[in-house]
Amino acid sequence: MASLSQASGKDKAKQLRQRIDASVDSLAKAVDDVRASETFQRFLEVQARFHKYSWHNCFLICMQRPDATQVAGYRTWQKLGRQVCKGERGIMIFAPRPFKREVEHENGDTEKVEGIYFRAVHVFDVAQTDGEDLPTVDVPTIEAAADGLLASLERVCVNRGVKLDYGKLDGGRYGVSKRGTVEVDNSHPTGQQAKTLAHELAHEALHWEDKGPFTRSLAELEAESVAYVVCLHFGLDTEVRSSRYIALWDGDSKALRASLERIANTARDIIDDVEALGARKAVA
Ligand SMILES: [Zn+2]
Hints:
There is one protein chain. The protein is an alpha+beta fold. Helix 1 (2-36) packs across helix 7 (216-233), helix 1 (2-36) crosses helix 8 and helix 5 (147-160) runs parallel beside helix 6. It is 52% helix and 18% strand. The chain has two domains: 14-42 and 137-278, no CATH class; 71-131, no CATH class. The protein has a three-stranded antiparallel beta sheet with strand order 1-4-3. The protein has ten helices and eight strands. Zinc ion binds next to helix 6 and helix 7. Residues 199, 203, 220, 223 line the site of zinc ion.
């Protein structure tokens, strides 16, 4: 009898894995579709015009205008169809300027010298400008209710010794993982909260310093994919939000497939926990 139940357990695990692989495949396709869309391409073109500032300049921007979100020079804003509003004071940063100079030595020889000097320039935050809207990629909040799934994921938290705090988060954040504690913004519908909680549980399981090197982009891709797989398994489809979120974090189908094992194993563990703790069944 033991071998029979072992065999059926193995079958069940195999079926679950096939189902997870199929979910990741369909998410990968959706992410590539987002990336190929005209809106996303236009968004990338505009983003490319925003300079990546050095940490020193980021510090200067932050000191002078802590709420700055998108910063560019006067002329860049004009090229983007926006004007700096009258009376706005610029944010001072230092722009590197390469120079070449000929130096004459006492013996009459000349030498070409190259270097960089820094010049103070002024940039402006988007809030100081007016004009055409910048293209954005909308990452819609999940409007569906999923009270049962949310309650199940709460039990998974308790079972894993992860403290869960609900509240209103700032800075447009929906959730945060703090190793041992996760916070979820509960001003959204319960479907969104369930998706957020699954996402933060994935960060808890995968993304702490001792769990290997990874970039923020990769961590977001993995956590969102896990959340998508878990939610879909229990009948909550988060594809529109999840695919755009992953595309905005620079993910694509190749990166998703490269992380398949980590995504599949983490999603399986959460699904197993939900089913063991709450007898919640997958939606066929
Ligand atoms: Zn995240």
